[in-house]
Automatic annotation (TrEMBL):
It holds the Pfam family GFO_IDH_MocA. PANTHER family: BINDING ROSSMANN FOLD OXIDOREDUCTASE, PUTATIVE (AFU_ORTHOLOGUE AFUA_2G10240)-RELATED (PTHR42840:SF3), NAD(P)-BINDING ROSSMANN-FOLD SUPERFAMILY PROTEIN-RELATED (PTHR42840). Gene3D superfamilies: Dihydrodipicolinate Reductase, domain 2, NAD(P)-binding Rossmann-like Domain. It comes from the Bacteria. Residues 125-244 form the GFO/IDH/MocA-like oxidoreductase domain. Residues 1-116 form the Gfo/Idh/MocA-like oxidoreductase N-terminal domain. InterPro entries: Gfo/Idh/MocA-like_OxRdtase_N (IPR000683), GFO_IDH_MocA-like_dom (IPR055170), NAD(P)-bd_dom_sf (IPR036291). This is Dehydrogenase. The keyword Oxidoreductase applies. Belongs to the Gfo/Idh/MocA family. Keywords: Oxidoreductase. It comes from Actinomadura harenae. One of its GO terms (molecular function) is oxidoreductase activity.
């Protein structure tokens, strides 16, 4: 199997290491050709000068880990070439772009997998299994959070789409994945306390959203760009009989107010470390799909559903009101 990797930045380089063990050959392209050669040289992979060369190199599949603006064009190009494609979230930079991309893909049977890595995180999978088994009883509350250790670079913020679209969209997908339920309405708020240029971009550095699911379950999603104690992603599912939590271990950067268990290991520095196992697992699933066929484990329609929730949250935050998903659905 010959896999092309578009993008050799931080996450692209991590994907390259995993792909090297899954494919017979990995071909890497990046806007910075020198960076592609550097990553390829470390792994014994092949570097090419750009995406045109990448797509003409006899590929069996494509992995897209480029900046967001190029995701949709590369996915469409791969599908038109008949190449199964894995793409980091988001599928497109905004809701309109996502819908336009899905329209362009309509009618094709070439599989597309979206990189919502939490679907492959052992804790989130165990939480989903616990809900499905019924051992938690009926679920009344879900709590999901993403707490960044440090904010993204200043020049990233104006084009990020905002906290809910860029960061919490992972939580929105995780809530849907773990519960198996759809979100019907949201109420969201946000604030700025840190020194970053979020307010100048119409964004917030901290936000929370209350989601109502289609069976009446309440989900609360929280996020911040400032959690210097360490990168912290957890999801709790509370049921009438029992509760379960994903992401609580000896590296969780959280201490009890009184006596109790305290973290014994270093906190995670960021998402690549926290979700290393999940990132590898999603590419293993992609490679298995390419080799054996079958449906995508995370089709692009899932990206759209999570984006609807993020869009509704952003409107709710700005207009200070509850927003239904049907209001933003197109």
């Amino acid at each position: 199997m010959r896999v092309g990797l578009a993008g050799a930045g931080r996450i692209g380089a991590a994907h390259a290491e995993t792909l090297k063990g899954l494919a017979d050959e990995v071909v890497i392209a990046d806007a910075d050709a020198g960076r592609a050669r550097e990553v390829a040289g470390k792994l014994g992979a092949t570097a090419v000068d750009g995406v045109d060369e990448l797509f003409s190199s006899g590929l069996d599949a494509v992995v897209v880990a480029t900046p967001t603006a190029s995701h949709a064009p590369l996915v469409i190009r791969a599908v038109e070439a008949g190449l199964p494609v894995f793409v980091e979230k988001p599928l497109a930079a905004d809701l309109d772009g996502t819908i336009q991309t899905l329209t362009a893909l309509r009618g094709s049977d070439v599989p597309v997998q979206i990189g919502f890595q939490r679907r492959f995180d052992p804790g989130h999978v165990a939480a989903r299994d616990a809900v499905a088994s019924g051992r938690l009883g009926w679920v009344h509350t879900v709590r999901s959070m993403t707490l960044d250790r440090v904010p993204p670079p200043d020049d990233y913020i104006p084009n990020s789409g905002g906290l809910f679209r860029d960061c919490s969209v992972h939580d929105f997908d995780a809530v849907r994945f773990v519960t198996g339920r759809a979100v019907t309405e949201v109420t969201a708020t946000g604030a700025n306390h840190g020194p970053g240029p979020f307010a100048a971009s119409g964004d917030v550095d901290t936000g929370s959203a209350m989601l109502t699911l289609d069976d009446g379950t309440i989900a609360v999603v929280s996020a911040t760009r400032y959690n210097a104690a360490g990168y912290d992603v957890r999801l709790e599912v509370l049921g009438s009989l029992a509760g379960i939590v994903a992401g609580l271990d000896d590296r969780t950067p959280l201490s009890p107010a009184g006596d109790g268990l305290r973290p014994s290991g270093p906190a995670h520095s960021g998402f690549l470390e926290r979700f290393a196992e999940a990132y590898a697992a999603e590419l293993h699933a992609f490679a298995a799909m390419v080799k054996g066929g079958g449906a995508s484990p995370c089709p692009p329609e899932e990206s759209l559903e999570a984006f609807y929730v993020a869009e509704a949250c952003e409107i709710s935050r700005r207009e200070r009101r509850t927003v239904t998903i049907e209001e933003v659905r197109r």
